[in-house]
Amino acid sequence: MGFFVMIRDVSMGFMLLCISALWVLPIQGAGRESFSRNSSSSSLPSSVNVGALFTYDSFIGRAAKLAFVAAIEDINADQSILRGTKLNIVFQDTNCSGFVGTMGALQLMENKVVAAIGPQSSGIGHIISHVANELHVPFLSFAATDPTLSSLQYPYFLRTTQNDYFQMNAITDFVSYFRWREVVAIFVDDEYGRNGISVLGDALAKKRAKISYKAAFPPGADNSSISDLLASVNLMESRIFVVHVNPDSGLNIFSVAKSLGMMGSGYVWITTDWLLTALDSMEPLDPRALDLLQGVVAFRHYTPESDNKRQFKGRWKNLRFKESLKSDDGFNSYALYAYDSVWLVARALDVFFSQGNTVTFSNDPSLRNTNDSGIKLSKLHIFNEGERFLQVILEMNYTGLTGQIEFNSEKNRINPAYDILNIKSTGPLRVGYWSNHTGFSVAPPETLYSKPSNTSAKDQRLNEIIWPGEVIKPPRGWVFPENGKPLKIGVPNRVSYKNYASKDKNPLGVKGFCIDIFEAAIQLLPYPVPRTYILYGDGKKNPSYDNLISEVAANIFDVAVGDVTIITNRTKFVDFTQPFIESGLVVVAPVKGAKSSPWSFLKPFTIEMWAVTGALFLFVGAVIWILEHRFNEEFRGPPRRQIITVFWFSFSTMFFSHRENTVSTLGS
Q: 91 with 313: CB under 8 angstroms?
């Protein structure tokens, strides 16, 4: 005779961490360690319990609860899946406490669960993953996006939503799209916030950008703490702010930012998916919130449109009325992932049982000596077929409300994609999409998957964005900070060619053609640029320009000014200006003025050269005379005539117009 195991609510308030989890519980016979069997089938249990562990009073929790209820109803009404096996669901509120959630998870594990769905908190995900590893229970989360949960340390953890690794790469591409180089990260100081921002830093480094400042605040921080944090952030150089916090408290940041004048022209605010989760959950949208958020760019998990998705959203009001929830409990994307998570477990169980597998448990040897403890850890059992069931889940491939449900070799959902939305006074407006297949596009990602992958910069497209202060032109993204340091400019201290750049006793400390060009460019800027020139090299030998470039790349110098040659290898590490000096070898010679003269044709040769040339012509004439005068009548006659003939022949040879014809073989 089967019985239901109900876990009563526990409320402890000394840890603040919103979590949720969903547990699949087999109905077991009293005193036995096996499923109660359906009378019509010896291979299927008569029922399976699904336990839901999450925070009721949260944006994600309120949406997830309705999705769980809808999924259970749909699965039990579908006779094609789990034929004859009924799913029941047991809810437990964690009251936004990590400790209470962990204790509740252990109590549910005592009932020999075969799968766990949740939590919505990445922090609790790290804790319960160790329990899942020990008991071989597949662990599925519809809301924990911390990238480190995908590590090899947690082989039984599986994420049914998107990994924040992809979201941080999407934000990096957005920063690169507008050619910004530095951002300020504002985040909640827990596993979700820290690990997400760490991945963002790595992704920015690959694009030759960086996080210039990390502004962390504790979970549950009050407005005073947030105000102090934003005031310090406002002193920084960068005006690109990436906000990665929890949806239930994140709007306070913008309320404080508005009061500090940080939502005006020149600022850029980029948020992860938490903001759209909060806004989507508001029905109707609060005009005061939209006024705070005008110009903000927000990312959201992309789920393709489908008939099933539209039908599910159409049922939302009825589900909300049925559960007697508040009228402003809206629909957000995590409801879709929660719904698909329940269906994924149900479909995997159906395949698991159809392959002839059974569910058995055994005692954990490492827990056998804990019976003297008040916490009955000995009641926790190892799921013997857990590894096989996990493999079945990983091999699932079907289309759900969130799109194609299929996992790659790293246990991440395939085809990650995000909406990019611009918050306006009328509400969020989509300006494009991002996917790891094509980067930014204005066409839905699923329409591009059939084409070759293309993430080249020239093919990236986004619609027009209205920035804070109702500005259309993309902000510059930085200002000179009030407490900022001057630019450190490296100047090669050369021994040779000092006209380009060299040490000097003037106020700048350096001089040269390159310095003059740089100073002229500085004067064209509409704002002052504090700067300090620092000589690089000892002045006894020419410094290594490759080492100078390396120090610029390592941020030892902010800029290098000098006769630095642009070569391919150097462009991989630093950016160069347009060249203002042509490279190559040249010959420099003085130019003297010369007057025009009829005798200018004589200038190419010296007098001696002309004398030698004339002598050679006379020599040729004499040789021709010797060869011709015995046979040729034109070279005979009186001596005076023969001498004239020799000179004339020599002169006419210069122009190939001599009148005498040669007849001898040697003369010709």
A: no
Mean pLDDT score across all residues of the chain: 84
pLDDT band at residue 424 under the 50/70/90 scheme: very high
Q: How far apart are CA 23 and CA 118, in angstroms?
A: 8
pLDDT beyond 60 at 482: yes
Hey, is 453 helix, strand or coil? coil
* Measured CA distances, 479 to 334, 369, 484, 556, 612 (Å): 38, 63, 10, 21, 76
Which residue type, as a one-letter code, is found at position 666?
A: L
Tens digit of each residue's pLDDT (9 = 90 or more) over 345-395: 999 989 988 888 887 888 888 776 655 666 677 788 888 888 999 999 999
Instruction: Name the CATH architecture for the domain at 164-303+415-447.
Output: 3-Layer(aba) Sandwich (3.40)
Q: Report the run of H or E that residue 626 belongs to, with start and end.
A: helix 607-628
All structural domains of the chain with their residue ranges: 47-162+306-367+375-413, 164-303+415-447, 487-560
Q: What is the pLDDT averaged over residues 557-565? A: 91
Average pLDDT over residues 35-53: 63
- Let me know if the fold of 47-162+306-367+375-413 is the same as that of 164-303+415-447: yes
**Which backbone phi and psi does 60 adopt, to 5 degrees?**
-70, -40
**Preceding peptide of 119 cis, ω within 30°:** yes
Dist. CA 480–CA 530, nearest whole Å? 9
Between CA 101 and CA 156 the distance in angstroms is 19
* Fold annotation for 47-162+306-367+375-413: Rossmann fold (3.40.50)
To the nearest whole percent, how much of the chain has pLDDT over 90?
44
- Residue 399's DSSP bridge partners are 404
Which residues are CB-neighbours of 199 under 8 A, at least 6 positions away?
147, 164, 165, 168
Across the strands, what pairs with 186? 215, 243
Rounded CA-CA distance 65/60 in Å is 9
C-alpha to C-alpha distance for 133 and 341, rounded to whole angstroms: 20
Between CA 367 and CA 378 the distance in angstroms is 5
The strand pair at 427-435 and 559-560 is best described as unpaired
Supply 597's token pair: 């003269």
Euclidean distance between CA atoms 321 and 241, whole angstroms: 39
Crossing angle of helices 122-135 and 191-206, in 10° steps, is 100
Indicate the residue type of 140: L
